[in-house]
Design a protein that fits this description.
Length: 330
């Protein structure tokens, strides 16, 4: 094979000079390359962008970790699902790709590593009792429900980021959204204080509506609702909204079989979730807008070059896409 140097301006292959190269694939990658992720690992709000991790601190004391942040929820997707075949192991599971996931709660994403069923409704991992605790008792579903939120700082509405809400935090999120709806106002007009339940052993979020955007800010957030990056963050641009391909060694499921399975499932007694503790009183909201703006504006060129681990090209591409789409467990 004859390799032409990348910086060469002559003797280029014909596909680069006759217009036959498919340049549209560059747009597909660039479309999702920019948004940051708000991590809650270790009960710390951490903005992850371009390989940098910045723990948010209190405005009055940059050595003390912020216990809550004020944000606007540009768009919310409550239908996401994630399944890990391997049991979580501290350290070893950090950054692991999910075995299967769905953005619409109906079918696996076409980008899922190993789709487990053609339809989420009949997937065995999506049934109550599929997940077993250390004592051997059923503890819920092996495929966890979660939410994906495109959120932004109140005065940085054009810089959306991803917040993944874990299963234990969904009740608090839904209760807050219900309160907002009862006021007959859109949820993306509200400034929300997001904090941590300090009594929970693992990151469990609390949500409280604390104020409204002004007129001009609300018009800006309305304009961001259907923004392509926002849609990508919440999963609406995912190709997995089409039916997943057939799975090797697993029978296909037609409509009649699906209806029968759903009917049988509806007739079966489901395990009840354990009672949820009362949410503690929330502390006053803290302003982190200036710090967020500084992080989001940080040029990628400042990143220190790090030696990359050797891996197969296809695996590397999938890992990169999972990073960009926020599909990895952080």
């Amino acid at each position: 094979m004859n390799i032409v140097p990348f910086d060469s301006a002559t003797n280029l292959p014909s596909y680069l000079t006759d217009g036959s190269a498919d340049l549209d694939i560059n747009k597909e990658v660039a479309r999702v390359a920019a948004f940051p992720i708000m991590s809650i690992k270790g009960m710390k709000f951490t903005v992850v962008k371009d390989g940098f991790r910045k723990v948010l601190t209190k405005p009055e004391d940059d050595e003390e970790v912020a216990q809550s942040i004020g944000v606007v929820m540009t768009r919310v997707n409550l239908k996401a699902k994630t399944f890990y075949a391997a049991k979580y192991s501290e350290g070893d599971s950090d950054g692991a790709r999910p075995t299967c996931y769905s953005y619409d709660g109906e079918v696996p994403s076409s980008n899922a590593q190993e789709p487990q069923a053609k339809k989420c409704a009949i997937c065995p991992h999506n049934q109550w009792g599929a997940r077993m605790g250390d004592n051997g008792e059923a503890k819920g579903k092996a495929c966890s429900d979660n939410a994906r939120i495109a959120l932004a700082a109140p005065d940085a509405l054009d810089n959306p980021m991803l917040l993944r809400v874990p299963p234990a935090s969904l009740k608090a999120l839904k209760e807050m959204l219900k309160i907002v709806a009862s006021r007959k106002v859109p949820y993306n007009s509200v400034i929300v204080k997001v904090g941590f339940d300090r009594e929970a052993p693992s990151p469990k979020l609390t949500f409280k509506a604390v104020g409204f955007l002004d007129d001009s800010s609300y018009q800006r957030i309305k304009g961001m609702y259907d923004d392509e990056v926002v849609r990508t963050i919440v999963g609406l641009e995912d190709a997995g909204h089409t039916e997943a391909p057939a799975i090797e060694n697993k029978p296909s499921v037609d409509t009649d079989e699906l209806d029968a399975a759903l009917a049988a499932r509806a007739a079966t007694t489901k395990a009840k979730a354990p009672p949820t503790k009362a949410e503690p009183k929330a502390a006053p909201a803290e302003t982190i807008t200036d710090e967020l703006n500084a992080i989001l504006a940080k040029p990628k060129a400042e990143a220190s070059a790090k030696p990359a681990a050797k891996k197969e090209a296809s695996s590397a591409l999938l890992d990169d896409l999972d990073d960009l789409l926020g599909n990895k467990d952080d």
